[in-house]
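FAQ: What does the model actually see?

It sees only this:
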Amino acid sequence: MHDGLSEQRVLLSMAVRDYENDDDADEFAEGIGRQLEAVREWWQTPGPLPAFRQVDPPELKHRDDVENFLREQNVREMRGHALTLFITGHGISASSDTHFLRLPASVEKRPLATAVRTADIVAAALDSHVENVLVIVNTCFAGNMASDLAAVHKEIRTSRQSSSRLDVLVTCGLKTKIEVLRFPTLLQAALRRLRRTAGITTPHLSVPDFMAQYALGLRAEDEKKFKLHHLIQGGNHRPSPCLPNPGYVHLPELLGALQRRAPLSAEYWLDRATGRPHESDTDWYFRGREDLNRRVASFLGPRSPRGVLLVTGCAGSGKSAVLARAVTLSDPVFRRTPLYKAAEDVSPEATIPPEDSVSAAVLARHLDAAQVAAHLLDALGVPARDVGATDDRVAVWSQQIQEYIRTCGHTVTIVLDGLDEAKEHARIIGDVLAPLAAFCRPPVPAQRPGESGGGAPPAVRLLIGVRGSRTANEALRAEADDLGLVRALRTAFPRAQVEHTDGTGSRQDMAQYVQALIGDSISSDVVKDVVPLVVDAVWPSFIGARLAGDQLRSAQDPLALARSDDWYRNTLRRGMQGLLQRDLQLVSDDGLPPKVALALLKATAYAKGQGVPWGEVWPTIAGVFLLPDRPDARQWDGMIERLLGGRLSGYLAHAVEDDRRVYRPAHEELADVLLDPDADLLNAGGLDV
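And it is asked to produce this:
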């Protein structure tokens, strides 16, 4: 919680606009007004910190007006968390390396007496007591401030320089005159990019990120004259509380600890738990899995303080949904939302895990062993130790996890999903998970008094989702479990329980899920006939069931599609490829050419790491698949927006990497189809309805 004077943030604007004797006085005043509007809009961006207190600019005519404003606002003695000072107007480049702010009453030949040395205004802010200060100067010849500011910086006490972050940006070069509308035009263009395409997920921007977004609006021939110059640099690429990010999305408080530490990771668990076809959907569709959910809830209950439960099954069989349901329904914050009540109403008795029974939940997809360990520490709320150049990060952070478990005083429950999609399986199992085995076993008989430090012995529960081999013969299940990662995990944890998601009983689970998806779209008597046909066509793929249900829901005539033999034959029975083919042919209804939509989807499958960021990267990769007829650069953003807002949005998931929102295929099964060079995805099959 941020409150009190120490947490306040202030935006001060000093704008000189009424140069009555200038030929362009009215035009200039209007342009200054536009600048102030743009700054006001940017710094009104909501976020987790207290909102900026915005101080309206005073009327500045004489140099005394400037000093009075600094005094009235107590700038030199101001305290707080952040101060942004915006200075704009005409500037005077003196014969020496000095810059003056020109006022309406200034005499150009007598700047010492009638103008104000701009560095003196900047110094008042820099030498205040505010923890973080950013000054932006938008005046003619502002680049001429460099020498003055260097001298000012030297005079600031060493303790303040080391404990505070001080930054000064200027918009014009040494000999460049201000173009009054250029700054607001560039600022508003940067604001739109950040809200739309930049994908920066942090609530605040770093100064270099702000400068880069601003510069993207400059033509090459104007860059030297009008780019931002960083005359005093107060830090590195860390976000600054002086610079709110207009693209930051403050998500609803649905998942407590997960939301605070990794908001988009929280979205992943919510997506999988609800079974929703699209991110914008607000209903709860998870159905079935009653026996499995009871076992998971019991495992997370007070009678099972330690142990290992492996949830395994073939690709797409709903492992992640089962784990995500447990993570979501146990979250204390989520349990206070209307959506929890909706989930509770459709959940059979004893299938909901106890509140706050999950300590940490991590998706291991595309993570190496060190990253898994770091994510676990972060999810537990433990800062990862700095690691030396010659140290093993995995060993250091794994040891830190064990130390936390020994000292925290409560059972630590870790949910790890997507282990089969991670990197370095052997190291994750052997160096991160296996050392926890001792905490998963029942404790040794109690020692005699005085032989132990007292307190409950350390305890760990591991709930792990991992892909297994599919087999239609239940008698061969144990043999299949002795292969691959399941075998490695059972070797590390001999007492582990194993539950499967792809047994024959999962057909009924899938039927309940499909019925929940389409129940409001088709009459109940038709649903009874349609659901078994869909399940027969797509089982055991729950991702296929979700996409099939979404096609029925979004069809112009759901009943006709449900009765179409061709839809079952050419779409559903061809699995993910058939479903994607049909949606690609219909995506033109969203105003998106199918070949462009496919190129954008392929780009997400080929991207390394957690996915592809929007910005300039996604169009660049997608353009390769459209050569030689790639779209004009100005068209890409609109097409990506249509992709993310249309029928194909359900084929994508998102994550965060390097503080950027990135996009990837919603499932590895889909990625495999997109990466298959022989898949003829633009074939217009199955489109009779």
